[in-house]
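subagent[fold] <- orchestrator: predict structure for attached chain, return tokens only, no commentary.
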Amino acid sequence: MNGDAAGVEGAGLEVANLTVRVGSATLVESAGFTAPAGAVTALLGPNGAGKSTLLRAVAGVERPASGTVTFGGDDLLALPRRERARRVALVEQESSTELPLTVRAVVGLGRTPFETAFGGRDPDAARVIDDAIATAGIAAFADRELPSLSGGERQRVMLARALAQQPRLLLLDEPTNHLDVGAQLDVLDVLRQLVSSGTTVVAALHDLSSAAAHADAVVVLSHGRVVAAGATIETLTPSLIREVYGIEARWMTNPLTGRPLLAVARR
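subagent[fold] -> orchestrator:
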């Protein structure tokens, strides 16, 4: 691979002047940020800040009124849907699927972009699906039907389906939603494993402490606008957190892990 090709392959996600409107309401306005390649970037902000809308726009699910989204040197929004799905996976907060599909069948849907246009066989499907199920930690209920699962179990199934797409860019909307503390840590550890193998991860999180401990970079939204972006510790300053969230914060070191710990309290 030549130097130019390597530079493109290593390019991260670049969002510029992205605006999303629904009717007369502007949900995201002129958003711009860069998510480094092969890193976890946390998308932060209070409820209603526009995190979910921004993720959906980056994934091409919500069409923006203006702006650009590039990844690896490619214009994601200009790619055909199947080609985009081979590079980008989105895990949303809630799954509305109530069809009596088994967990394994749902995870298998992640291989759809790799079938031929006429549904031809994907030779890697079985191996990739098994790997995704193991990585997401859902082997114990892989043969159960999706409607029988708890909210937290469904969340992990949706993560496994996204992993089966083998995306270079993984977008997650509150990936620890519905999960107990142990399961939250498991999912966050999976994200760290993914970036160590070169996947770029952007995750909307509501927990500042999780972002502090696990994210390499953060993007902070308020009222649909990006108000700060950059390396986690340098960006999440006490003054910024006070301004955006109305709470006090202080950086510390977690005595159990040695990782940065963000302590927060009401003003």
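orchestrator: received. Logging for downstream: Residues 1-9 have pLDDT under 50 and may be disordered. The first helix runs from residue 3 to 9.
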